[in-house]
TrEMBL record:
<keyword id="KW-0677">Repeat</keyword>
<dbReference type="InterPro" id="IPR003599">
    <property type="entry name" value="Ig_sub"/>
</dbReference>
<dbReference type="Pfam" id="PF00041">
    <property type="entry name" value="fn3"/>
</dbReference>
<dbReference type="Pfam" id="PF07679">
    <property type="entry name" value="I-set"/>
</dbReference>
<feature type="signal peptide">
    <location>
        <begin position="1"/>
        <end position="17"/>
    </location>
</feature>
<keyword id="KW-0433">Leucine-rich repeat</keyword>
<keyword id="KW-1015">Disulfide bond</keyword>
<dbReference type="InterPro" id="IPR036179">
    <property type="entry name" value="Ig-like_dom_sf"/>
</dbReference>
<dbReference type="InterPro" id="IPR001611">
    <property type="entry name" value="Leu-rich_rpt"/>
</dbReference>
<dbReference type="Pfam" id="PF00560">
    <property type="entry name" value="LRR_1"/>
</dbReference>
<keyword id="KW-0472">Membrane</keyword>
<dbReference type="InterPro" id="IPR013098">
    <property type="entry name" value="Ig_I-set"/>
</dbReference>
<feature type="transmembrane region" description="Helical">
    <location>
        <begin position="615"/>
        <end position="637"/>
    </location>
</feature>
<keyword id="KW-0732">Signal</keyword>
<keyword id="KW-0812">Transmembrane</keyword>
<protein>
    <submittedName>
        <fullName>Leucine-rich repeat neuronal protein 3-like</fullName>
    </submittedName>
</protein>
<dbReference type="InterPro" id="IPR003598">
    <property type="entry name" value="Ig_sub2"/>
</dbReference>
Amino acid sequence: MFTWLTLQIIMWPVVSSLEISCPIECDCLVHQSLFINAKVQTVNCSSRDLLEIPSVVPLTTESLLLPGNQFSDLLNNIPFLPRLLELDLSNNLIKQLGRGSIFQNLTKLRFLDLSYNRFRTLLNGVFRGIHKLETLVISAGHLKFIDERVFDDMNNMKHLNLKGNSIHSISAEWFYDVMNLEFLELAHNEVFYLNGETFSAVVHLRHLSLSHNRIRGIHERAFVGLRNLTTLLLDNNYITEVPSVALLSMRSLRVLRLDANPISQLGTGAFTHVPVEEISLSNSTTLQLIDRGSFLDLLSLEKAYLFNNPSLQYVDSHAFINVPQLRVLLLHRNNLSALSHEIVKRRPSVHLTLHGNPLLCNCNVRWIRKALGQGNSSSAVFLDPDKLTCSQTQKLDSISLKSLNLADIPPFCEPVMIGYLNKTINAEIRESQTFACRAFGIPPPKLHWILPSGIVLNESNNNFLTPGKHPGTLTLHHLKPKDSGVYKCVAENNVSVAFKNITLQVKNVDIGLFPQRVSSTFVTVVWNGTARNNFPEYDILYKTDNQPGEEYKTITVSYVHRSYTINNLEPDTNYQFCIAVKDEEEGDYLQLSCAHAQTRDANFIMQGIYTTSKGAIAVVLGIVAGMFLTICMASMVTRKYRHRHYETPEKSLIGNMAHALPENLSSSLMSQDST
Ligand SMILES: *[C@@H]1O[C@H](CO)[C@@H](O)[C@H](O)[C@H]1NC(C)=O
Ligand SMILES: *[C@@H]1O[C@H](CO)[C@@H](O)[C@H](O)[C@H]1NC(C)=O
Ligand SMILES: *[C@@H]1O[C@H](CO)[C@@H](O)[C@H](O)[C@H]1NC(C)=O
Ligand SMILES: *[C@@H]1O[C@H](CO)[C@@H](O)[C@H](O)[C@H]1NC(C)=O
Ligand SMILES: *[C@@H]1O[C@H](CO)[C@@H](O)[C@H](O)[C@H]1NC(C)=O
Ligand SMILES: *[C@@H]1O[C@H](CO)[C@@H](O)[C@H](O)[C@H]1NC(C)=O
Ligand SMILES: *[C@@H]1O[C@H](CO)[C@@H](O)[C@H](O)[C@H]1NC(C)=O
Ligand SMILES: *[C@@H]1O[C@H](CO)[C@@H](O)[C@H](O)[C@H]1NC(C)=O
Ligand SMILES: *[C@@H]1O[C@H](CO)[C@@H](O)[C@H](O)[C@H]1NC(C)=O
Ligand SMILES: *[C@@H]1O[C@H](CO)[C@@H](O)[C@H](O)[C@H]1NC(C)=O
Ligand SMILES: *[C@@H]1O[C@H](CO)[C@@H](O)[C@H](O)[C@H]1NC(C)=O
């Protein structure tokens, strides 16, 4: 440091006395820089098809513009320019930047643009020496890998733009030294997960864009430290749920965009206690329901942009609870057949849009018609009054709402269910299913479910409901074939009743277990059908028949196995054997097939093994005949299972270990079998 300073002082009078003229390839001028906001000595060599940077450039140059040339290598190519503040190298063919010798003498540099180049990596040290840099732009490049400490010592950096590269993960280490960063642009990359504490060092960050990435998961602590963040852009990702907990870290957040994400539903508390003024959740093809309390305790929320969601059929009358500042609510081009007046009642003045929705001309549009008549004096001001239409039924032509006669619109009407009224759902065993049932009507309809067994579940006794969920939501966990049947949702008010029927078909499993060889102390059980069901492993459960409270003993077997010999049994005792699959969530077993067998008495010392049933013979023959087929299918099933398992990247990390099991098991099983 010291030597470099003295060197500058010594060199300066010498160099400044030399009159270096403008390179012939370039224009030299004094120019108002947009980036530095001052007039700077500029050498402009833009778009000259140069292969090399001019070697002699006036030493007083403060801005060197070199975009649109053909530089591929910068090593030993950048002239000595002690006053350089601004360097634009965008739109070149730069393939690599090396580890630190390129920019190191540009100690005054404040702005560097390396966009539209070809390099793929940023290695530690590349920016060594340019610690005055305030703005670094590397957009629309091929950047894939960024070393963890590449921005070390760049504590003046305020603006980092890495838009449009191929970055797939963000490392917290990048930011350890750039704690003054205010603007971070990472849109149009391939980021798929936001880890906890990623941004904890950049406490001054105000703007963070992660639009157009592939984010599927956000850690609850992903935004910790972003106390001053005001704008968070998460639109156009693969986010399926609002990251409610993660959002709580940001105490200054004003603008939140979650547009074009595959979120299907907003439930109670999706957004809570965030100081946002503006939330945008538009352009989602999957969003269907906005339930009670989705926007809860948002004391600063003024604008909710919820338009262009072609599947959005329901916004609950109490979707906004304790949102006193709401002034703008855009709901146009959704799939709403009605909107409850409750949403805007008792609010000072809300500006609304609602055109492009399949509104029905029933009692639900009465308040809208009324508001249109009152113009600006209504508490609900429609911004699109002339575009509002409704229809008698969804098939009929729509008519202008304004042209309706208020007196012709009834004050009450029957419940109208949203969505398909008849639906068949095919489910796999052990899956969970959620059925949503919502209805509009005045008075607001009450909902209840009638299960296939005839049991009625309503708000007071629906123990399937998780607290906080809408009463029209029925969630069934750990499905079994016997859960199949018609689930009816009934919406009822004093005008009429409406039904919605969901037929659930839980795939049956065709697995049979039989005792094959029985001795006094061991029983061999055989089974079939396991290869054609997608479980990677099964459990054999057994216990004696005579002690009611007895726990099952369990043995885990792979789907490729067909038999198992259980040792150390009590002679002359009745046993129950079952084949089952483990329900991971419940830690319980789902029994697929069971059989009984009585062990021989103690005198029967393992010589005379007898076969218990004809079924068992058939099974054994079937096993031999089917062996070839089974092996083929086994490999297919493995592949299918793995494919399913790898769909979520986070899960796959955990999944690796579990996959090792089936192969290991087979060896231990073989040794057991031979005893
Ligand atoms: C630099 O030169 C290019 C091409 O001649 C021109 O388009 C651009 O406006 C110039 N920039 C400045 C700052 O003079
Ligand atoms: C930077 O400056 C040092 C000391 O003056 C010199 O040795 C080195 O060659 C320079 N590097 C470049 C890339 O100009
Ligand atoms: C946040 O911003 C306020 C003013 O906007 C400022 O006073 C405060 O120092 C900032 N805090 C951090 C951690 O950047
Ligand atoms: C929604 O999509 C349209 C067309 O794709 C686009 O022009 C618009 O900017 C998007 N709006 C939001 C809020 O994402
Ligand atoms: C819109 O709602 C109707 C019924 O209200 C439904 O039949 C249709 O599938 C919905 N459209 C979309 C895209 O979800
Ligand atoms: C309603 O307000 C808007 C803007 O606030 C104004 O342009 C319009 O003329 C007003 N309409 C009436 C009927 O007062
Ligand atoms: C649903 O089932 C009920 C009774 O079984 C029947 O009355 C009703 O018409 C069905 N609804 C639809 C939409 O099929
Ligand atoms: C629903 O399905 C049942 C039986 O498949 C049928 O009788 C009924 O008409 C259907 N209802 C509607 C509204 O499609
Ligand atoms: C729920 O159903 C039970 C019996 O079916 C009934 O006694 C109760 O009043 C119902 N509760 C509500 C809130 O409808
Ligand atoms: C339905 O209930 C409302 C009050 O909730 C009442 O004003 C209306 O008269 C009732 N209608 C019928 C048909 O009972
Ligand atoms: C298993 O064996 C039993 C008895 O032979 C037979 O009834 C059943 O269909 C078989 N199941 C499969 C899936 O092959």
